[in-house]
Amino acid sequence: MIRTVTWVLAVLLLIAVIGFAVYQTPAGQDALFERAVTTMLVRTAAPPEGLQVVVCGSASPLGNDPDRAQACIAVLTPEHFFLFDTGARSPLRMAEARLPMDRLDGVFLTHFHSDHIASLPDVNLNSWVQGRRDSLRVYGPPGVEDVIRGFNLAYSPDRGYRVAHHGADLLPPAAGPMTAVGIGSGDQIAWQDDLLTVTAFPVRHDPVEPALGYRVDYRDRSVVISGDTVATDSLFTAAAGADLLLHDALSRTLLDPMIEAARAGAPRLARIMTDVIDYHADSRSLEERARAAGVRQLAYYHLVPVPPNALAEKLFARGLSPDTVLVRDLHTFDLPTGSTDILVHAP
Ligand SMILES: [Zn+2]
Ligand SMILES: [Zn+2]
After folding, report:
1. For each successive 10 residues of the chain (347 residues), what is the average pLDDT?
2. How far is the centre of ligand 1, averaged over its atoms, from the C-alpha of 70 (Å)?
3. Which one of 200, 231, 276, 347 is CB 3.0 to 4.6 Å from 190, fit for a cystine?
4. Domain 50-345 is found in CATH 1.10.3470.10
């Protein structure tokens, strides 16, 4: 036994010494760098076998954690790739997940709070540079035309420089500006083909009006994305029988002591933290309703406040069912078709 352990330790030490030596030599550095850039620049993730959901942003604006981008959910199938909101820092997560930006089919916006739209110009640019040939379609409630017109105007010089520099054959100018697609504020089908349907439904995020949630059905699998809302009937009606529900969640266990602490020295912050309570869903108000709606997997994103560490995540999860997933950025859910499996991959 002792001999075996000694041998294992010796082999591990040898590997470490060789690894260190490779790292220190120019030839070794070149080889490692070549491998890294091939992964970074060339390979995209393999297409999923069914419906795949990747969390590209799990944070709300309340709190700051560089490991969490603001609201963004990617939904992929073998044929299509859509984003739901594009919060700040979410393009970093798209790159880390090696999402196929060249085949991005569209972006669905839930509402126009800055934490849901801030990275739209980068998503537009990145997908254009990586090979998207048509204008990026951005779907959203009434008002989306103004938002997109504004972004297109602000980034007009940038597009001009890039076409002049790289050429119109590489960056087709018509694919540069985004195209807004208004989809109304009620229940409606927002996008559909033979295999996939995106349904929009109204949620309650007063005074933000309108605000939407979305349901994606692909073959026999489904995911619902809440956007920002309190617990509301329209969502649970739309989520009936869904495989996966990603819901906005606010933790009073975490927030209440923060408000209390802020009252003495930071009254403005205390006021803002108190104001958010009435327009996000209390994390304890959702599990029972999700169960009653027949949702098979409940997961919380857009966490209010953002838990900055493992201890805060424990507090956020306190009182919740162990089956409820508190997502982090790059949490991935695979829903293979012809199956009831829900494969949850923590980052
Ligand atoms: Zn909002
Ligand atoms: Zn938000």
Report:
1. 80 82 84 80 79 97 92 97 98 96 97 98 97 97 97 98 96 98 93 98 95 97 97 96 97 91 90 88 93 98 94 94 97 96 96
2. 11
3. 200
4. no
